Amino acid sequence: MTKLTIATTQYGLTDIASEEQFWTGIADKVRSAAAQGAEMIVFPEYTTAHLLSLLPPLSYDDACAYLDGKTDEYLRFFGELSRENGIAILAGTHVCRKDRAEGSGALENAVRDPKGFVNRAFLVFPDGRVEAQSKIHLTPEEQRHWPLSPGDALNVFDTQWGRMAILTCYDIEFPELARVAALRGAETILCPSYTESAHGYHRVRFCAQARAIENQLFVVLSGLVGTLAEERPQVDTAYSQAGAFAPCDFPFAPDGILAVGETNADAAVLADLEFELLQDNRSSGGVAPFYDRKPELYRQLAEELESGR
User: Fold this and answer.
1) Which residues are catalytic?
2) Can you tell me whether residue 242 is helix, strand or coil?
3) Tens of pLDDT along 39-57?
4) Which residues, 6+ apart, have CB-to-CB distance to 122 below 8 Å?
5) Residues 135 and 170: beta-carbon distance below 8 Å
C-alpha cells in the first residue's frame, strides 16, 4: 500500500538574533521530522520573510529585493538539507523575481519578466529535483502593497506517492483551481499558508477541507504562528493550526481530520496519507462528488449567464 508519512509545520515567528539562527532552526525541524519517520515536510507561506525581522522595517519593494537576494542561498540550503536527511521539503514560499525558473514540471511556462516578483513555493527532493508553483490568486493586501505578480500556470507533478499540486493560502479558496488539479490526477494538495487572524485561518482551513471533500483527495495545510516583538509591515503576527485532511466519508473519520496541531504552537504535525484508503473512498464512499459532477450542465449554465439569458 502506498503511504506517505508527512510532517506539516506550525512555524513560529519567534525573535531571532541572526541568519544562522534562522537556518539552524529550520534544519532542526527537518531533522526532527525525518527522525520521526516523515518522508516529506511542509513549511508555510512566507517562511523566509522571518528574515526581515533582522532588519529595520523595509518598504515592500525593498523587502522583496532583499528576499530575492537570498534565493540562491535558500535553494542551496534546502537542497542540501533534503539530500542529507532523505526527506522531501516544501520549503515554504519565498519571494523572488518571476524570471527565475518555475521548476522542472513548469519550466516551459515560466514567466520571463525581470521587473516583478512572485510568491513562489519550492518543493525539493533528495535527488536534487525541484518543483515550484507561484501563488496564482493574490490577496487584496498583496495586490495593494506587495510588488507581486500572480502566477499564470498550474504545476501538477508526479512523485513516488502519486501526483501532487501546491495551492498557496488564498489559492485554496478557489474551487476551480483545485478541481483542475484533481482532473489532472492530483491526489494530494499541499497548502502552505500565512493568515494573520482566526478569521483568515478558518477561511483557509474550511476551504481546505471542502476541497478534500469535493475532489476526494488529501489536503495538507501548514501555517505561520506567533508574533514578533517588533512590528514589521510584511509579516509580524500569525494564527494557524496545521493539519492533514481527507474526505468526510468512508473509510476516513467523520470529520475528515487525519491530524491537527495545537493552535498557535510552534510545532510539527505528523500524518499518514494512505492512498489505498483514498481509492477505497473513491470507489466505495457514501457519495462520489469527484465523479458525479455535471460539467456539460455547468458549461451550459455559464454560457446562459454570459449571454444574459
Assistant:
1) 45, 135, 169
2) coil
3) 999 999 999 999 999 999 9
4) 74, 75, 78, 90, 91, 93, 94, 103, 130, 131, 132
5) yes
